[in-house]
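Typical record is below.
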Amino acid sequence: PMRPLVVKEGRGDTLWDVDGHRYTDFCMGWGSLILGHSPEPVAVVLREQIEQGTLFGVATPYERELAERILGHIPSMD
């Protein structure tokens, strides 16, 4: 019987399973991984944020920045 595919790591468009086999990931999170697995610029920012904290349960400056960007693309939301 075939064993199920169990992925251990992903980088760019490549996956490695727990047995060390390499695969090209054509699904890429069904579109959510447009930058690939573990893109370095994203990993750097994530590491920086993890050092500052990850879930505060209160508003952060980043939420306001995101809201302003979204509103900037929706003229009817003055």
Summary: The chain is about 30% helix and 15% strand.
